[in-house]
Amino acid sequence: MTSISGSRILVTGGAGFIGSHLVDTLLARGAAEVRVLDNLTNGTEDNLAHLHGDARFSLTVGDIRSADARAAAMNGAEVVYHLACLGVRHSLHDPFENHRVNAEGSLQMLEEARERGVGRFVYVSTSEVFGTAQYAPMDERHPTWPETVYGGGKLAGEAYARAYFRTYGMDTVVVRPFNTYGPRSHFEGDSGEILPRTIVRMLSGQRPVIYGDGEQTRDFMHVSDTATALALFGDADGVSGETFNLGSGTEISMNELCTVVADTVGRPELTAEHLEARPGDVRRLIGDPSHTHELTGFAPRVGFAEGITELTRWFRARQRESPEMIDRVEVRNWLPAGVN
Questions:
Q1: Is 150 an active-site residue?
Q2: pTM over 0.85
Q3: For residue 177, is the peptide bond before it cis, meaning its omega torsion is within 30 degrees of 0?
Q4: Which domain of life is it from (predicted)?
């Protein structure tokens, strides 16, 4: 297996939140070249602006469903990390487009990689493939009953990656991050996540919004840890054809999350506003990270309180530069644009 150090790597979706941090990590580990293929639907060039002076980095603006874009980006690549996708709330208002990108696009990427003899293909999935926990913590053999087209499409991509390993002997790895947070996370539009949305609202003096009773739980991991773990799967031994959970092994409810953020922001009086339950919302997620630890030695380093403090500081600085950020936070962000 080719080592990450000295190798040529393609990261699809590399201008996004997790993808851009992964690019940073791969370059720090000595990759000879890191290419990004991203259509900038969710990602931004700003996430990669600090790399424009690095000769080892390049960005191609294009769609994974374009044969020309795939061919140009993957030519000569030894390792592919496939993160490009459309998100869970997008799938609620545009299920067919979500499927075409997440399922069909992943199959197209796998076939391109097979034809070009890519050394390893890391498919980055999601804990949403599970649906709500039937037992906890959730290991890799937990039943998969996704509650959204997003979860279904990502599960299809997993199945294709495993099939390419079994049918063609292609070196594929499936990794399922649970809930990642940290700098560059999305707060706007249908890609906005609970933590950044809540922080931006509270920094603007607005109450946080919780859908339903707030007892839904999630397993959060800081993006620096997620990127570190993903990088390890690029050249780890004994992982081919395998599926791995990537979480902290702890859970926090949305009610608890809002309390932690309020205290960190210094606005404990901003109590949560409860709205109707969100469609397709998973009730409970908590991963069992032991398989990942056993095969790679990875363990998260950033604690939740430390990570929230850092993220609050990061958003506070950006809000000083762009006070209109609050205008881009949509309350019911699973509805079509402009409907709220």
A1: yes
A2: yes
A3: no
A4: Bacteria
